[in-house]
Amino acid sequence: MDGRETDEVVATEFARTLQQLKLQGCNLLLVGSVPDAVLSAASRKLFGDPDERRFRVAVLSGTPRTTVYERLPEATLDETATVIAHDTDAMPPHVRSPVVHVESGVRELTCSISEAITSFDVPGGFRPGELRFGLDSLASMLTRYDPTLVRQFLGIVGGQVRGANGMGHYVLPRPYDHELVDTLAPLFDGIVEYRVDAGREERWHFPNRDLRSPWLPL
User: Fold this and answer.
1) 121-160 pLDDT, tens per residue?
2) Which residues sit opposite 194 in a β-bridge?
């Protein structure tokens, strides 16, 4: 099999894997030593097209309140989105979405996320990919809390996202080869790595499937 055929096989398998994850529900770890604007663009993309029917839960943990505008298009900040502010400045008063302030620990944050997901009135349940969840950032949580507690949190929240056939993404601004990424990788269905060497690019890793995409434009 020559290089071109190999590339075609990888592209086909990559597309098939993405489709399966969207149908079954998934959780993705976003990593890379890149400017924050790159991770904002990636998060905005994963929260979904503002013109499509989506239900969004955005968790800001230790990140500036203005991050919500960078991660979520303003058109999506309505009753179909919930913003959870954890260890973050208060939200501006003109945010139209429900805002939940969590001042205490991981247990309370877990409960708030669960309540936010179940609060959406969706007769018959979410369609595949309809629920979008995003958390920024894991680096802040791992600095503040015991890593074992954060891993338990990821297991519970990730399970609820998958159970709703949703797509969750979790920002960890660290290089792909960082030990934290290696430690957390088994908790995720895929890892998306970002770089800016030749413009904004992303590369998807699926360790459990021994599959990696080529570098793609973000």
Assistant:
1) 888 999 999 999 999 999 999 999 999 999 999 999 999 9
2) 202
Strand partners, 197: 199
What gap in Å lies between CA 47 and CA 39, rounded to an integer?
12
Cβ-count burial 36-54 (b if 16+ within 10 Å, e if not): eebbbbbbbebbbeeeeeb
| Cα separation, 80 vs 77, whole angstroms | 7
Q: Quote the CA–CA distance of 50 and 214 in Å, as a whole number.
A: 27
Q: How far is 130 from 150, CA to CA, in rounded Å?
A: 26
CB proximity list for 102: less than 8 A, separation 6 or greater: 84, 85, 86, 108, 109, 112
Average pLDDT score over residue span 62-91: 80
Q: How far is CA 91 from CA 35, 69, 113, 114, 169, in A?
A: 23, 11, 17, 20, 21
